[in-house]
Amino acid sequence: MAGEVVRAYLPPPLPPHPPVDLGPFYGQIEAANRALGQLQGVTTILPDTPLFLYMNVRKEALLSSQIEGTQSSLSDLLLFEGDFSPSVPLDDVKEVSNYVAAMNLGIKRLGEGLPISGRLLKEIHSTLLRTGRGSAQDPGNYRRSQNWIGGTRPGNAIYVPPVPHKIDDCMSNLERFIHDRKNPFPLLVRAAFAHAQFESIHPFLDGNGRLGRLLITLMLHAAGALREPVLYLSLYLKTHRETYYDLLQRVRTKGEWERWLSFFLEGVERTSIRAAEAATRITGLFQDDRKRIQSLGRSAGSALQVHQYAQTRPVFSVPGASRKLPMSSPTIRKSIRHLVGLGVLSETTGKRRDQVFVYTNYVLALSQGTEPIK
């Protein structure tokens, strides 16, 4: 209502005060670091690490966007990227596609020497909201008006973040914490604190949740904990979405950093283990399918090329494949028939023309846990 008095929350600068006693967390920190190291070890021996990264980034983009309410599936995203029509509103898929581009930009800019900073986060945010929903919410700039979480107005909101003129100071404090070399906290603890603080600052009009989750991966990558950006927490956070939001709110209202830290470390450990298992499982799938394709005899060479293409584009058409492969369309069609016969590919439209083929078991493996939230 007009004229109502609303109290905005101003998060104290990090590190938390009173200090968090890390003694009870050393076991969790060690377990999370060990799982993270195992994930890094698995991904370095993958036969095609860029391919694993390519699909992993898309899965994370999808899950992080689903937490914010999009109804896109992995198949929808792959259809969109292949210039096919997805089954959900286009803005939903654009939102996920923008997240992919934002992550790639962040990793690229870190590689060019730009540190994690307000400048970098603004660049990433500009890409995150470049089209679709949120594109009118001043992408790339800190907000100049009040926002809130839950409710219809600040007066009945669940959470009201800092007023706009305090955002620069809050973000500067966060940046100093991230780069403070005297900081005694292990990397994963710093990432947990930084993510919660960013979500409390809520510096942009839209996209804060997605960008805050990107920040975790960027911190681990920049610090060298992961040579490649293969750890994404959004499946864990999506599965435990109510707990995730509740613990962030408890940090603000009760200073319960310990409960948030325990939840975060458990997420890193579980997610790392699952990601390593998925990488091993998908590698085994590719190897098993290659062996079956080699049994085709003289047709195996062309079929293997189409199989390789399907790994990078698991939803595709003959015209799409013919633009990328040094093969004629009739040869590609013949190879696809072989792969359908082996059960590697399946046709999804049921039509005789404009057919769309899917690397079925690969998409199923990638899609585990990515069903839209109802």
Q: What's this, in brief?
A:
The protein has 374 residues and is mainly α. The chain folds into two domains: 23-278, Orthogonal Bundle (Fic-like fold); 295-367, Arc Repressor Mutant, subunit A, CATH 1.10.10.10.
Can you describe this structure?
The protein has 374 residues and is mainly alpha-helical. It folds into two domains: 256 residues, Fic-like fold; 73 residues, Arc Repressor Mutant, subunit A (Orthogonal Bundle). Helices cover 59% and strands 2% of the residues. It is built from 15 helices and three strands. A three-stranded antiparallel sheet has the order 1-3-2. About 2% of the residues have low confidence.
Query: What are the segments in which pLDDT stays under 50 over at least 5 consecutive residues?
Result: 85-90
Helix segment count?
A: 15
Q: For the record, what is the CATH homologous superfamily label of the largest domain?
A: Fido-like domain
The helical percent reads 55-70%
Q: Which structural class fits the helix and strand makeup?
A: mainly alpha
Q: Span between N and C termini? A: 32 Å
**Spatial extent as radius of gyration:** 23 Å
Q: What is the CATH-assigned architecture of the largest domain?
A: Orthogonal Bundle
Q: Kindly report the CATH topology of the largest domain.
A: Fic-like fold
Largest sheet composition: 3 strands, antiparallel
Instruction: Count the beta strands.
Output: 3
The mean pLDDT is 85
- What is the strand arrangement across the widest sheet? 1-3-2
Determine the strand fraction and express it as a percent band: under 5%
Shape field = elongated
Q: How many structural domains?
A: 2
